[in-house]
Design a protein that fits this description.
Helices cover 33% and strands 24% of the residues. With 473 residues, the chain is α+β, with helices and mostly antiparallel strands.
Length: 473
């Protein structure tokens, strides 16, 4: 369900928020000039030396209007499973090591998103034109070929440089409608079956997926902004599983080869389980003695307020994410609790710095060649740089949502709303309004976790980006 309310002030100073968080939108002249030169011809890779796979019926599937297209997909059914062809934009073909574009990307670390615009990792002449897997001609790519059996298990992995051509630029909503009607592009007609097999396998591995709808700020028709609560479509979940499949294959190569950079998340601390078990019991959620938390979460329906409240509490199981460099021996805990397996970021190099390095590691390992010097020398600095970028992105996201929530409620202080309790303590708790979907502190103790209450808005401070409520009934 989608909830909307227009920001009555019709103003949100997103430029000021970006400046406060240290997010730059534009690029220095030397960065733009170097990107323009590279866009006219790949700077470092001779396309004639690549394997020509323009025969593959690859398509891209992204949000409507996207132009920075990292991935193109084609799925071939096999006798017992599928062959997945996943082409990833080969950003290293366009970026000169230690050049102006490279130095700029290392400082930014990622693309930063806001409802009015995105601050890209690379200049648009690369990220939205030359390097993007648009359906207007051949592109250099890192081509993964992964065989998956009917149980969702990986049986073969290959990765190499190639020349590819996307046949169509598709969007999630249209693809979902086509698949629901029994149609869709032939290249992804098997995506539902593959996606469900991969989801089943992830549950078997004990992957922890919260499945909560995301709070988003988007432009409203006629001006202003809205707060929306949006759940992923099935096509988005299936597509994400293909990305995770590739990231698991990359991690396997790195661990086998003894070099690389993993995206890690510690296994949940069993000390948190008793509290969560008590919450599950209070909310009427079954948690069998031999079940992993991921199995419990996989059964839940977050449209049920009790289930959503439990998922909010379970978010504490997914803390401590970071990047871990592998050199020789594998780390003590190489896994990612959310994935239920070792995992590496390799599928979004246009939007995330670490993926360019990780892809180069995988290509070298698969070919049995030494790592490029710039990759080897740059690996150890990546965890710290990416941590700073991730923190900056989280702060920007949170500031935008918080400021918009305060704006939406600025002229409704004193109004009463129906709300669901998602956190409860002896003195206060957290609630989410049913409409608009705004989250805030409620100054009341012993709130009914997962229950419905009525609350009055007591504060909506735009400058402090804060809203507060009190319980009415």
């Amino acid at each position: 369900m989608l909830h909307r309310m227009r920001d009555r002030a019709h103003h949100l100073d997103l430029d000021a928020l970006r400046s406060e968080m240290g997010v730059e939108v534009g690029f220095a002249p030397e960065v733009l000039a170097e990107a323009g030169r590279a866009a006219s011809a790949p700077a470092r890779r001779d396309l004639a030396e690549r394997e020509d796979r323009t025969d593959l019926p690859l398509v891209t599937v992204d949000p409507l209007g996207s132009t920075d297209l990292d991935q193109a997909l084609a799925i071939e059914p096999l006798a017992d499973g599928w062959r997945v062809r996943y082409a990833i934009a080969d950003v290293a073909a366009w970026v000169e090591p230690d050049g102006a574009v490279d130095r700029s990307a290392r400082a930014r670390t990622q693309t930063y998103y806001a409802p009015d615009l995105r601050a890209p990792l690379h200049p648009p002449s690369l990220s939205e034109v030359a390097a993007s897997l648009l359906p207007d001609g051949p592109r250099p790519a890192v081509l993964w070929t992964i065989d998956v059996d009917s149980s969702g298990a990986t049986t073969a992995v290959d990765v190499r440089r190639a020349l590819v051509r996307s046949r169509a630029q598709l969007d999630y909503a249209a693809v979902q409608a086509d698949l629901d009607a029994g149609g869709g592009a032939e290249a992804i007609r098997a995506l539902p079956a593959l996606g469900e097999a991969l989801l089943d396998a992830s549950r078997e591995r004990g992957a922890i997926e919260l499945g909560l709808p995301e709070q988003e700020v988007v432009a409203a028709p006629g001006g202003g902004w809205t707060v929306e609560l949006r759940a992923d479509r099935a096509i988005e979940r299936w597509n994400a599983q293909v990305s995770l499949l590739t990231g698991r294959a990359a991690a396997w190569l790195m661990l086998e080869g003894g070099i690389g950079i993993l995206r890690t998340l510690p296994a949940p601390d069993p000390a948190t389980f008793p509290r969560l078990r008590r919450a599950a019991s209070n909310l009427g959620i079954r948690w069998d003695a031999d079940e992993h938390p991921g199995e419990v979460l996989a059964r839940l329906d977050t449209s049920d307020p009790r289930h959503a409240a439990f998922c909010e509490l379970a978010a504490e199981l997914l803390r401590g994410a970071g990047y871990t460099v592998v050199r020789g021996r594998p780390p003590v805990d190489p896994g990612h609790a959310g994935v239920g397996a070792p995992y590496a970021h390799v599928t979004a190099p246009l939007r995330r710095l670490v993926d360019r390095f990780a892809s180069e590691v995988c290509l070298s390992l698969a070919a049995g060649t030494p790592l490029p010097t710039w990759v080897d020398e740059g690996l150890d600095a990546l965890p710290g740089a990416m941590a700073q970028g991730d923190q900056r992105a989280r702060r920007l996201d949170r500031a935008i949502v918080d400021a918009t929530e305060a704006l939406v409620l600025a002229d409704r202080v004193g109004s009463v709303f129906a709300a669901t309790v998602i956190e409860a303590g002896p003195k206060f708790g957290d609630v989410v309004l049913q409409s608009p979907p705004i989250r805030g502190r409620c100054d009341a103790g012993d709130l009914p976790l997962g229950g419905e209450v009525h609350v009055r808005c007591t504060e909506a401070d735009v400058a402090e980006r804060r809203v507060r409520f009190e319980r009415v009934s």
